[in-house]
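Project standup — Tuesday

K.O.: blocked on the structure for the chain from last sprint. Re-posting the sequence here as requested.
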Amino acid sequence: MMLLCVSIRVAVYPIEVPKLWTETIEAHRHEVREAILDTTGALVTEHGLLSVTMSRIAEETGIGRATLYKYFPDVEAILHAWHERHVTAHLAHLAELRDEDADAGERLEAVLHAYAGICYYRERHGTQAVGALLHRGEHVVAEAHQQLLDLFRDVLSEVAATGRLRNDVAPDELASYCLHALSAASSLPSEDAVRRLVGVTLAGLRPPR
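H.V.: unblocked you, prediction finished:
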């Protein structure tokens, strides 16, 4: 009796997750993370810091607490991420105004108005309180402050080149002056008062008569 030995070769292909699937998962994770931060911001603005708990965030976002903990270990981490995103968005907006294709003086005025508005609404939306609470975010605040100084210095230097900026004080010092002066907007009672503060700040930047 003849035995036939049949050799069966099984082709083994490496299992790879399709790129589209990976991108879809990452996009979903990004959307969930952004939704968590959006919810946190709304809670802080509408109800104050004491309203921000893991249970409340999960409920308002529409996810389970177990899912929430996969993204953030605690409330402080969520507040830190939200605050950092908030600061980054403001810096990006100010940079866009600085880089617009317009007269240097107009861009300076636009940046001053925008920053004063940020200071005014920051107090009312709870962002300033969150920043003060988060000791972990001190490096974010310090870095943002330096970026603001650089941003103001850049546009002030451009105005100085046109002869419409006082030349007895360096742009670096004037940038610091602008930041400190406009920070007073956080304690002003109205948007009209904020606009007047910007006008006074601009007057201080012009060449003395």
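K.O.: great, moving the ticket to review. Residues 1-13 have pLDDT under 50 and may be disordered. The chain has two domains: 23-73, 76-209.
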